[in-house]
Specification:
The complex is a heterodimer of chains A (91) and B (576). Chain A is mainly α and 91 residues long. Chain A contains 3 helices and no strands. The radius of gyration of chain A is 35 Å and the shape is rod-shaped. By secondary structure, chain B is of the alpha+beta class. In chain B, α9 runs antiparallel to α21, α12 runs parallel beside α14 and α12 runs antiparallel to α19. The longest helix of chain B is centred in the N-terminal third of the chain and has 28 residues. The relative contact order of chain B is 0.10. The mean pLDDT of chain B is 86. The chains are: A mainly alpha (91), B alpha+beta (576). The interface between A and B is medium-sized, with 25 and 34 residues.
Chain lengths: 91, 576
């Protein structure tokens, strides 16, 4: 009887210890998960800021200004436009 | 072995019974007190203690949910929320050394004087700076000034600025929609922040999730049908036209003729939604949807279509225009330019009021009304934009003959610009009226047949004649593409009287062989000398349509030298 009890006690202690370690493990993982989620949020914010920046730089108004003023581009007069038919291209 | 010292050791004496009892009783009493205390704590103060414990390791934290983005049809952002920080203080707890104040002022790009004035105002609470970039706020907090706190907020940015202002609208406090699409689609765009209960350790890291109280609901992105390149093009040309003609306002709509999607919707005057502190409400209105005007001659094609459908006329029927005057009852209607007998085609080409009126009077009021009504006039266009209006189309039983005559050329009823552009899908799409949409739809959209294919094509041909020499709008021609359209020049009513102020408009489509786009232009009160639809709105149509077709890569359906302007010196006969 005593032996069984001692055995059970050992099992109990082992269980208790493993509970403690797994709890600890779980908490460490949660902390890690939290950190990654915070990073994900940070990236999300950054994505928003970058796409805002992209939209701002890429606004047609700015593109046109750069094309006209810095690159000195202009629309060709209709007389200088040649229309190529798709059929001709295929030949 | 020596005997133990002879010291006499007294045998342990028993305590006297009374003392033993006393000690026992005292210890016992202490135990009972302890037990009682623990029971007291367990039962009576349980709630208080548990809440105190929870306060030390458990936290309810807010999970932010940002507002969805608004993007154009290609996914380019038109409205984005990004987190910002505001700095605030309780005035009596704020304590900064002069040097700290100087540093703070440098970070916030202001002066120490301004900061101290802000600190001396009334009330306990004060914002030091609102909606700062997170980095700026962090630098300010890093100064370690006592009593300076931060608060997380979202700020909405509009990269399109004044170009897309009236369509998108803007958000107000707490990032909630206040105008335009932002308001109409609040439920879709708006996020609901969630919260959850967690256990934290002494370093403040979250170690365990206890329960989610509210799951956060992030805002969803919204794709508009607008093409930001066309939007900019429309805006730029409209602005130039309004300034050139010294006009009060203007509107321009570009519709995809195949799907009814609005590709561009520009308004002038406008405002910058990113800096709108002192903007008059008036500039915020999306005039193309929320304002109506008398359309004038742009209604004539619908009169002609109704008569063609009823079999009263054919495109080559001859109408006598009575030397440009027609008296109905006590009133007389005039043509701007006298012409002899005109064919039905020429009535549109030359925009004859008398011709249109005579055709309208040959029809029952009911027939004309049904045509106008089925074309979408007098009902809201259902774009999903808040505040869009139906315009005015009175029931036919109340029409007097003179009213029926004036309505045939667009007076005595009112429309908004989007309705007008949409109605022209009938002629662009072989008789089908397309539903108009501000949100992106995929593929072709089924319309509702209103007139026969033949009628639609006949009218389209008449509209093409109007843009050729001899018509009212040769300025609307586009190199490389055949265009069709109708001018409108309507006098404005103020206080029930027609004034000498005008609304010049042009609605047209291209390429005529298979229309892809419909462009409607409206210029309100041009006062630069010209006020005719052909010369004020026609060139705007031409430049927007030409550039838009090129941008979309629509195959040309005419040689590039197709533009035939009347020989110099000839008068272009415009209608009023």
């Amino acid at each position: 009887m005593t032996r069984v009890n001692i055995l059970l006690l050992c099992v109990l202690i082992l269980c208790a210890l493993s509970l403690v370690t797994s709890r600890h493990h779980a908490r460490r993982l949660t902390v890690e998960l939290e950190r990654e989620q915070a990073r994900a949020r940070q990236f999300d914010v950054e994505y928003g800021q970058l796409s805002l920046e992209q939209s701002t730089w890429g606004m047609p108004a700015r593109v046109e200004k750069v094309a006209r003023e810095s690159l000195h581009m202009q629309l060709p007069a209709p007389s200088r436009v040649e229309v190529v038919e798709a059929a001709e291209k295929a030949k | 072995m020596r005997a133990a010292p002879k010291k006499h050791v007294a045998p342990p004496t028993e305590l006297p019974g009374v003392r033993a009892l006393l000690v026992f009783g005292a210890v016992g009493l202490l135990f009972i007190m302890l037990l009682g205390r623990s029971l007291w704590l367990q039962w009576m103060e349980n709630d208080f203690l548990q809440s105190q414990g929870a306060a030390r390791f458990s936290r309810a934290i807010e999970v932010p949910a940002h507002r969805g983005r608004i993007v154009d049809r290609f996914g380019d952002a038109l409205a984005i929320s990004t987190p910002v920080k505001s700095l605030w203080v309780f005035r009596d707890r704020f304590d900064a050394t002069p040097e700290q104040l100087r540093h703070l002022a440098r970070v916030l790009e202001t002066t120490p004087q301004q900061l101290s004035t802000r600190m001396k105002g009334d009330g306990e609470f004060a914002f030091v700076a609102r909606q700062l970039a997170p980095e700026t706020a962090e630098r300010a907090l890093a100064l370690g000034i006592q009593g300076l706190n931060e608060q997380n907020e979202y700020r909405r940015y509009y990269p399109g600025g004044d170009v897309t202002a009236q369509v998108i609208g803007f958000t107000g406090d707490k990032d909630a929609g206040q105008e335009g699409i932002e308001l109409a689609q609040q439920a879709w765009l708006g996020g609901t922040p969630g919260s959850r209960r967690v256990i934290i350790n002494r370093r403040g890291d979250i170690v365990e999730d206890v329960a989610a109280i509210h799951a956060p609901q992030a805002g969803r992105d919204l794709a508009l049908s607008v093409d930001s390149r066309l939007q900019y093009l429309a805006f730029r040309e409209l602005q130039a036209a309004v300034e050139r003609n010294k006009a009060k306002a203007g509107g321009l709509v570009v519709i995809d003729a195949k799907s009814g999607e609005i590709l561009a919707l520009a308004n002038w005057p406008t405002y910058n939604p990113n800096r709108r502190d002192k903007v008059a409400r008036d500039r915020m209105r999306n005039r193309a949807l929320t304002d109506t005007f008398e359309p004038g001659s742009t209604m004539k094609p619908f009169t002609i279509a109704a008569a063609l459908e009823a079999g009263k006329i054919r495109p080559d029927s001859v109408i006598h225009t009575e030397a440009g005057e027609l008296t109905i009852g006590k009133q007389t209607i005039h043509d701007a330019h006298r012409a002899g007998p005109l064919t039905v085609e020429q009535v549109i080409q030359k925009s004859s009021n008398v011709g249109a009126a005579k055709i309208a009077l040959s029809l029952p009021a009911e027939t004309l009304w049904r045509m106008f009504s089925e074309a979408g006039f007098g009902t809201v266009p259902k774009t999903g934009f808040p505040g869009e209006v139906a315009g005015r189309l009175r029931p036919p039983t109340t029409w007097k003959p003179i009213e029926q005559a004036t309505m045939s050329y667009g007076h005595g009823l009112s429309v908004n610009l989007v309705q007008l552009a949409r109605a022209y899908t009938i002629f662009a799409d072989d008789g089908e009226l397309k539903p108009v949409a501000l949100f992106k739809t995929d593929g072709a959209v089924a319309g509702r047949p209103i007139v026969s294919v033949k009628t639609a094509r006949d009218v389209r041909h008449m509209l093409e004649l109007a843009t050729l020499p001899g018509g009212t709008a040769p300025q609307a021609q586009v190199p490389g593409y055949r265009v069709a359209g109708k001018t409108g020049t309507a006098r404005k009513i103020e206080g029930g009287e027609y004034t000498r102020k005008y609304v010049a408009s042009f609605v047209g489509m291209a390429p005529v062989s298979s229309p892809r786009l419909i462009v409607a232009v409206m210029i309100d009160e041009p006062s630069g000398g010209d006020y005719y639809g052909g010369s004020v709105a026609g060139p705007v149509f031409s430049s927007v349509m030409g550039a838009a077709l090129r941008m979309l890569g629509v195959p040309t359906d005419a040689p590039v030298d197709n533009v035939v302007l009347p020989p110099p010196g000839t008068r272009i006969e415009e209608e009023t």
